[in-house]
Amino acid sequence: MTSASRLQAGTLYIVATPIGNLSDLTERAKQVLASVDVIACEDTRHTQKLLQHLGIRKPLLSVHEHNERERTEQVIHHLRQGQTMALVSDAGTPLISDPGFPLVQALRAAGLTVSPVPGVSAIITALSAAGLPTDRFTFEGFLPHKTGSKREKLEAQAQEARTLVYYEAKHRILETLQLMADVFGPERPACVARELTKTFETFYPGTLPEIIEQISADQDQQKGEFVVMIAGNPEPATASEVDMEKLFRLLLVELPPKKAAAVIADLTGENKKALYQKALEIQGKA
Ligand code: SAM
User: Fold this and answer.
1) 83 alpha carbon to ligand 1 midpoint, in Å?
2) Is 39 helix (H, G, I), strand (E, B) or coil?
3) 169 lines ligand 1 (CB under 6 A)
4) Buried/exposed 27-44: b ≥16 CB within 10 Å, e otherwise
């Protein structure tokens, strides 16, 4: 182990692991995993396979969504005794749509040392080769599973000017892309990345309808892991336009479109007929 990577007692190392290609594990990640006292991981069987590949044997401690809070106590105890620990997830960088946030938050609050050992994450890997603007982007993780909540979330993001990045599972990819096409429109440049760093790595650049056509044409294209990226809205609506739509939606719960348009015309002084058309449009979208 080099002096730059000598481990510090009482530290939790957040170690990124590959998202497909095992050669993407960094030299420092290997050294840290080989040197810590205990490795906390999402799924012990999964991590055991990676460690076997590296020829490393270590005590493992499972830390996942359902036991993270109790395990935090144990980790704090180990670290206060001066042990060194690593946290890994099944793939990529821990805490990025993976367990670890409550643990790291608690360790920071307890004044313990947390140190990153950086590596791969599907977000950055996908963006780096997608051909969409990367100067500003927003990572939205997984969307809600239910269609209604998913649509609501997408509608709230339709005015976003930054590139939008999502993770999606294979059994929901087509439904999600269709919903995105409905909400963001047929022109928005997008790119879907599938099976990054693996044998069947594929990028689908184009508009959402073009991407849907390519992915639905062949069942094999619907297999594996996906990152969906959508260019930001080049002409985001002004705050007053957004507020108007919000106001309409609220009023349309209680009032017929004509009445809602009349109330808003009174409030804003805008043309009643045009507002009535807008009310019908919004009602049609609901
Ligand atoms: N912590 C990971 C990271 O840093 O990217 C993400 C874990 S999250 C539970 C898993 C999701 O990440 C997948 O459903 C997929 O959306 C995305 N993902 C992970 N590996 C991928 C790959 N090789 N190709 C495309 N997407 C991938």
Assistant:
1) 30
2) strand
3) yes
4) ebbebbbebbbbbbbbbb
68 CB near ligand 1 (under 6 Å): no
Is the CB–ligand 1 distance for residue 42 below 6 Å?
no
Q: Looking at residue 195, which CATH number applies to its domain?
A: 3.30.950.10
Q: Parallel, antiparallel, or unpaired for β 137-142 and 38-41?
A: unpaired
| Count: domains in the chain | 3
The encoded tokens of residue 248 equal: 């309409």
Percent of the chain's residues with pLDDT above 70: 96
Model pTM score: 0.85
Q: Return left, alpha or beta for 225; rule: phi > 0 is left, psi -120 to 50 is alpha, else beta.
A: beta
State in Å: Cα 91 to ligand 1 middle. Answer: 7
Report how far ligand 1's centroid is from the alpha carbon of 126 (Å). 10
31 shares its domain with 116: yes
Strand partners, 40: 61, 87
What pLDDT, in 10s, does the model give residues 215-251? 999 888 889 999 999 999 988 777 677 678 888 888 8
The share of the chain scoring above pLDDT 90, in percent, equals: 78
Q: Which of 22, 227, 228, 229 to mutate to test the pocket of ligand 1 (most atoms within 8 A of CB)?
A: 227
Give the domain extent around 19. 4-120
Q: How far is the CA of 96 from the centre of ligand 1 (A)?
A: 9
